[in-house]
Amino acid sequence: MTAATELHPEDAPQEVPPEETARQADPSAAGDGGWRALLLQPTLLALGVAAFLVWRVTAALSETERRQLGWTVLGNSIREHLALTAAAAVIVLLIAVPLGIALTRRPLRRLSPLVIGIANTGQAAPAIGLFVLLAMWLGFGFGTTVVALVVYAALPVLRNTMVGLQGVDARLVEAGRGMGMSALSVLLRVEIPLAVPVLLAGVRTALVLLVGTATLATFIDGGGLGVLINTGITLSLDSLLISGAVLVALLALAVDWLGRVVEHVARPRGL
Amino acid sequence: MSEATSAPPAGTVGSGDRHISGVAIRLDGVTKRYPGQDHPAVDDVTLEIAAGETVMFVGPSGCGKTTLLKMLNRLIEPSSGRIHLGDEDVTDQDADQLRRRIGYVIQAGGLFPHMTVATNIGMVPRMLKWDKQRIAERVDELLDLVGLDPAVYRDRYPRELSGGQQQRVGVARALAADPPVLLMDEPFGAVDPITRQRLQDELLRIQEELGKTIVFVTHDFDEAVKLGDKIVVFDVGARVVQYDTPERILAEPAEDYVADFVGAGATLKQLTLTRVGDVDLMQVTTATVGSDSAQVVAAAQAAGDGFVVVLDRRGRPISWPTVAELARTTTVPDTVDERLPVVGLRSTLNDALDTMLAASQGGVVVTSRRGGLAGVMAVETVMAAIQRTRTEVAG
Predict the structure, then answer these.
(1) Architecture of B25-101+179-263 per CATH?
(2) Where are the domains of chain B?
(3) How confident is the model at residue B175 (pLDDT cuts 50, 70, 90)?
(4) Residue B14 pLDDT grade (very low, low, confident, very high; cuts 50, 70, 90)
(5) What superfamily in CATH does domain A32-266 come from?
(6) Residue A33: per-residue pLDDT
């Protein structure tokens, strides 16, 4: 009865072409693969942390090195580094996401190339230059560092917010409006959920960028793991330099992994 | 106002006792001008659509038919003119509120990919603040109506459905809050011909049941003839060239323009006007799966039939072996012939001919609404119909 004109539920599965049936089995497989990839990263991370700890406990260190690599000093540096990253990330989210949304709405849509252009220029400027110039203007310290980090990391979030929203099929927006959803309700219930994967990828990029760039905070007295690296260079103590670099790398990997987990969980089902 | 056209009385449409839940639509001098364009996209259209009718908008691309459709639910705001739904002037009503009372179906359904079938269908009822129980019941009822098993499809996501199934859900979603008017913008444009034919048959069945006022934009004249109670043929600027029943547009095109648009195949297009249910079907020997082959063969030979239609236990045709093939078996086999050409009573002769050609068969099995056997139609019946219209045209 495949060609029955009057469709009955029993016929319906046969209507699905084989390749579409195959696609149905797909999401779960992809999901499993996704989780497997997500588990690989923390394993490597744990190995890295373990290696550093073993080295730190067993290595023969001079007095200066021991002081600089003391657990409290290290803990404080990491905490400062994370505080810089988190503060900048929150501000970036609060600024770039709403701005990205606004720039894809009709009244401001014409401005979007201009804003993207400015943001691109900001991104192209060397981070260290930005830090120093802002410090000369706003003074040294934590606050200035956060401002510099925000300026530097806003672009990926802004751009991905816009790209994600622009990537939503215009017919879906029309279908939503056509059935009587308000513009706001289409934005909240259709456009943003569908843009979430791209948007979150932008957030993750920004976070990793922030962890790396926050090492420059040391030059304008902003603290963080950069201090360790800088001290290592100044005193020609490779152990400090390498410890700082390794810790920053591990932190970036950890943040990246967290971002991936959030992306995986927040990705709307059915896509 | 030369295009001020009102259709002739709907004498040809259905029988008087048909249930109508739609309302009339009246367009009064509706115009759409875009800034920077010399000619209006829609120029002063006055049109009346009777309650419960299916009216097809056809015309070349860019003629303004889609713009006109979108002005009915104010996705595009008219520059001037009035739009009435029933007795109400809706031109200045709140657009969002208005659209919740007008079903809207677009190509490929326009389903939200991140929502399940049930959530998609329940969108408008949720906006209208129906309670959960009522929405759930309505969703199941609508899935049933469009021929999808609620238990199977309710919780699926759109990507897990075929194109045809997505389109069905799209129709169900548009019907969710039981709107009197349904706007359809080339809904079946993206599916394959066989699926399209089935979706058209389904729409005819649903419309027979519900009696909505449907405005349907298409570029396919055959589709217009098959589905429409009336057809509006548009020219550039949404100028109404002819507004009439399919029969009369085919028989008496108002202008050369319409004749050109209808095409040289107008004689063959008469095939689209004739439904399979309108012609005499052959009754053939049938056999139920598992019955004794020898008896069936004997019965077929007695009736002079060369083949037998095998029915499954629910009385639906599954294959049509020749008597010789059947004679080689002891009991009637339950093999399902995947290529068995089947059409419904509401299909057109055109559909039937397409189905025969697609299956390389000289006939089709015809099913009734419930899927049971209604008879068999041979290619000769189609040929006779062509011959008849040719003679009529010549005479």
Answers:
(1) 3-Layer(aba) Sandwich (3.40)
(2) 25-101+179-263, 278-390
(3) very high
(4) very low
(5) MetI-like (1.10.3720.10)
(6) 56
* % of chain B residues with pLDDT over 90: 40
**pLDDT tens profile B281-292:** 888 888 888 888
Chain A residues whose CB is inside 8 A of the B289 CB are none
Nearest neighbour of B347 by CB, restricted to A5, A12, A271:
A5
Q: What is the pLDDT of residue A35?
A: 73
- Flag whether residue B230 sits within 8 Å of chain A, measured between CB atoms: no
B98 close to A (CB below 8 A): yes
Distances (CA, A) of A196 to A187, A201, A265, B169, B200: 12, 8, 11, 25, 37
The chain A residue lying nearest B124, using CA atoms, is A179
Helix (H, G, I), strand (E, B), or coil: what is residue B45?
strand
Q: Is residue B93 within 8 angstroms of chain A, CB to CB? A: no
Q: What is the pLDDT of residue B187?
A: 92
Q: In A, which residues are within 8 Å of B195 by CB distance?
A: 15
What are A32-64's pLDDT values in tens digits? 556 777 888 888 889 999 988 888 888 777 877
What are the φ and ψ backbone dihedral angles of A3, each rounded to 5 degrees?
A: -100, 15
Element (H, E) at B379: helix B379-394
Q: A5, A28, A173: best mutation site toward chain B, by most B Cβ within 10 Å?
A: A5
Among chain A residues, the shortest Cα distance to B157 is held by A270
- The more confident residue out of A223 and B66 is B66
Q: Which residues of B touch A22 (CB under 8 A)?
A: none
pLDDT > 80? residue A15: no
CA distance B230 to B244: 5
Q: Are A168 and A268 in contact (CB under 8 A)?
A: no
The burial class, CB within 10 Å (0-12 / 13-18 / 19+), for B83 is buried
Contact list, B318 vs chain A (CB under 8 Å): 1
Q: For the residues B1-30, what does the mean pLDDT come to? A: 63
Secondary structure of residue B376 in the 3-state scheme: strand
**How close is the nearest chain B Cα to the Cα of A206, in Å?**
26
User: Which residues of chain B lie closer than 8 angstroms to A176, CB-CB?
Assistant: 112
Q: What residues does B231 pair with on adjacent strands?
A: B56, B244
Judge whether B240 and B2 are in contact, CB under 8 Å.
no
Q: What is the CATH number of domain B278-390?
A: 3.10.580.10
Q: Are B340 and A1 in contact (CB < 8 Å)?
A: yes
DSSP state for residue B80 in the 8-state scheme: E
Assembly ipTM = 0.75
Nearest 5°: the CA angle A83, A84, A86 is 65
Residue of B nearest to A196 (CA): B114
From the CA of A204, how many Å to the nearest CA of chain B?
22
Count of CB atoms within 10 A of residue B374's CB? 20
Q: Which two tokens stand for residue B327?
A: 């004679």
Cα angle: A100, vertex A125, A234; to 5 degrees: 125
Q: How confident is the model at residue A7 (pLDDT cuts 50, 70, 90)?
A: very low
Domain map (residue ranges) of chain A: 32-266
Contact criterion met (CB < 8 Å) for A174 and B75: yes
- Chain A residues touching B197 at Cβ < 8 A: 5
Distance, in Å, from the CA atom of B250 to the CA atom of B269, rounded to the nearest integer, reads 8
Is B113 within 8 Å of A271 when comparing Cβ atoms? yes
Phi/psi for A53 (5° steps) reads -60, -45
Which residues of chain A make contact with B341, given a CB cutoff of 8 A?
3
**Does the pTM exceed 0.80?**
no
The tokens for A264 are: 């995986």
Q: Chains A, B: CB contacts under 8 A, how many?
A: 136
